[in-house]
Amino acid sequence: MEVIEKGIENMAKTITRTATISNESITKRFKSHKPYEVVSEYVWNGIDARAKEVNIKLYFYNDEIQTVDKIDIIDNGDGIDFQNPDKNFDNWDSSSKDSFDEKGSQGRGRFSFHKIATQATWYTCHHGEHAIISAFSQEIPDYSITPIAAHNQDSNVLKNMKGTCVSLTNITKKQAEKIPRIEQLLKEFSLEFGWKLIIDNKLSIKVNSTDIKPPKHRLHTFDKEIDGHNFSISLIIWDEKPNKEKSYNYYYNSEISYVYNDLTGLNYKNGFYLSAYITSSWFDNFNTSTNRTLSLYDDNESSPNSETFTKLKSFIKNESRRLYNEFIIEQADELVEDFENKGFIPTYKHEKEEEQRLRIEHTKNLIKSIHIAEPNTFNGLKSNQHKKILVALLDKITVSNENDSLLEVLEGVLDLTQEKLDTLANQIKRTKLDHIISTIEVLTKRSDTIEKLKYLFEMFSKDTKETPDLQKIIENNFWLFGAQYEIIGAEEDDFQKTSEKLLRTITNKDQIEIEDLVNSNLSLENIRCQTDLFLARKMITYTEEIGSHFKCTVIEIKRPSTVLNEKHLRQIEKYAAVINKHTGFNDPDMTFDIILVGCKISTDDYIIKQRLKDNRGKGHKGLVFGAESRIRGYVRTWAEIFNEFDITHKHLIMQLRNQRVKIESPTKDELVSDLQNS
Questions:
Q1: When comparing pLDDT for 648 and 151, which is higher?
Q2: CB-based contacts of 626, cutoff 8 Å, min separation 6
Q3: Which of 193, 238, 348, 572 could form a disulfide with 273 if both were Cys (CB 3.0 to 4.6 A apart)?
Q4: Rounded distance, CA 395 to CA 362, Å?
Q5: 149, 130, 137, 89: which is closest to 112 by C-alpha?
């Protein structure tokens, strides 16, 4: 190779050289390059030359339509060693197959200009010496080097007294049309150089004076000491995939110069885009060979084979995996929120508020558990209808105590490893346990309510009033009257008010008999019925006899100091007659339960006791009339209600607690495995 002689006398001498690559190879190498990628090659060249400032300037034929006429890429790096072109321009791409390096390293992109320009001119200053290097798209791989005096140097390079300005000129109109606008270039360069800008906060890259900013990301930094060496670790989670590459760990020396890389092993799973950047003086003399056999004396050398590097990799892997797990959990929360907003999660609107909350939470936890074990379960479903159906099916299986069947179904449908299958089994087990615990809490609260009511009626029976003392208590605890009323929540005002107008005395004047109710034009305020505490609720329900229908519940509560007798029975019978006569309530698809509640039945009463005896076995406990009618009447005492709860629910609480212990109790093998793995 011919070497350029130094000295002023030879400053104007131009040397023509030929790179060790054919024109066909260059064309093939950059065939798929987009215009912004061509420009980025020159930016990487500057960064590789240790530049801290890179400015991209676009000049236009017409500023309004932004037709590009010329592009300058200016850096303040070390410049091009034009005295030894055999180490850069000539020896093009020689190491691309031997090891990975940063983009732009060793001038691999210097001839990419032919994609967007006819000519490229490099104005460079290296160690105080100046030169111009020129190349033409029609003559690649030929290029020329001309040493120049400082006063002939480009003003941008001369200002820094080092670095390079690459000027891409003679851009055809057809080439100019393919060059993106500045806004698009800023976006593309953000994805391309964002990671470099994050780890090197001294680096600045601009496009027409506008700073390139990193894309949205989350940065996690660690300082780790291993075998007496300090490592600064940056783990970056990107909102968008930053470039075409896989997920790498990049290693840099104390001057933040690239030395080595390897795969993170995560490879962008489930939208998790991670890049790791590790900086340490330990890499200053890093031996990148991975195939050699280490001797007894150099096994601690700075290399990929060393024990220190193995420990470093293990730490990075563990932290990366932890962040991935956190990401998947966060993604699961977002998935559940999205499903809830789109109405994919059942609302159980016909169930009691507390039961609604428990079942909705149970379904949410199940979705989270499955997503965490295998995110593609839901991500792989493109149709919203399919997602909604899958959620509904999962919900039906879990509430039927068929958790094992659920696991078998998922195992058959999903391609799960044994590790993921075990994780999913544990998640479902955890979900079931959470549901049991929540149910125990609800039943325990109900048990506390029973005990407090017992104490209230025993100690303060004479002072306790229907309103306001009992009204709010009963409104919030309809479950007291039986399982069939558990799902009744607070009713809309119109039904309550209409029912109150119908069955509550508004005035003592003009008393009307039941027989007078022949049409809906009758003034409801004229009906005279004596009431204490009256509550009405309506819900949609289903029975085999009727099908879907409105189930209405009317509860008449007497104060604790009142004993129930025939007069009170006649009162709820009158309610039934009024309901049956009134056109607003005589729809055959409406059923009514009228419940009379008091502390006890009078010892002198005969009618109520006989009615209870006659209707035993014809319906729910306490039936006194209407066994075959759509309107049924019941008489209940608080003692019966309390005892019924104690018999059924306390046994259920005991069973649930036994299930909880069973689920929470690990086997010997599980204990040993957990301890060994921890």
A1: 151
A2: 576, 632, 633
A3: 238
A4: 9
A5: 137
